[in-house]
């Protein structure tokens, strides 16, 4: 197991450090809501990673490879979510409001719960994670890994993900950063909305070609 982790984790850490929708979601949650929403969003992303890793171990990556239409449908649904989220944030920025309140349906849930949900859905919106884990596991694991071996790897990936994004959230939730965000909230929300929309369009375009 140690040898497998030593082989897989460096590749995973490089992928983790590459900015994407997860980074954007955690950053926006920490800047707009503070430490607790930022950490909750990080936990949501990590939960999504655990789900994708477990799904890859159960053969989802192979299913996606054999049923391209299914992968395409999942990808387009995820792209639609990112586009919708970006559009809502842009609209909130245009109206001068706080996108964090405008992009989640009302229901009385506390901000951390909303942030967790956004982190989870943002991560699950990109099925490329299943393909990544599938390729990593195919290289490093036996064709039929045991339950303990698979669970250990999934937890290792989720744990490193949580640590990385929790650190990011803690850094961005500092008081001086919160003050800077309040001064430039409208512009930051507009940039974040445009980025989410761009991620969604790029994801859909990659499947449409």
TrEMBL record:
It comes from the Bacteria. The lineage of its organism: Bacteria, Pseudomonadati, Pseudomonadota, Alphaproteobacteria, Acetobacterales. The gene is rhtC. Its main location: membrane. GO terms for molecular function: amino acid transmembrane transporter activity. The keyword Nucleus does not apply. This is Threonine export protein RhtC. Pfam families: LysE (PF01810). One of its GO terms (cellular component) is plasma membrane. It is a multi-pass membrane protein. Keywords: Cell membrane, Membrane, Transmembrane, Transmembrane helix. InterPro entries: LeuE-type. Coiled coil: none annotated.
């Amino acid at each position: 197991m140690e040898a497998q982790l030593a082989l897989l984790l460096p590749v995973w850490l490089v992928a983790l450090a590459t900015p994407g929708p997860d980074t954007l979601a955690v950053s926006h949650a920490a800047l707009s809501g503070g430490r607790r929403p930022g950490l909750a969003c990080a936990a949501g992303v990590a939960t999504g990673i655990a789900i994708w890793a477990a799904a890859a171990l159960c053969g989802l990556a192979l299913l996606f490879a054999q049923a391209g239409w299914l992968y395409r449908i999942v990808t387009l649904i995820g792209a639609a979510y990112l586009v919708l989220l970006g559009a809502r944030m842009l609209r909130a920025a245009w109206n001068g409001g706080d996108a964090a309140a405008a992009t989640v349906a009302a229901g009385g849930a506390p901000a951390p719960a909303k942030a967790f949900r956004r982190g989870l859905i943002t991560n699950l919106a990109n099925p490329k994670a299943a393909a990544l884990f599938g390729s990593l596991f195919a290289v490093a694991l036996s064709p039929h890994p045991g339950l303990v071996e698979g669970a250990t790897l999934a937890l290792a990936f989720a744990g490193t993900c949580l640590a990385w994004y929790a650190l990011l959230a803690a850094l961005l939730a500092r008081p001086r950063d919160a003050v800077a965000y309040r001064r430039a909230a409208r512009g930051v929300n507009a940039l974040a909305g445009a980025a989410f929309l761009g991620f969604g369009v790029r994801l859909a375009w990659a499947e449409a070609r």
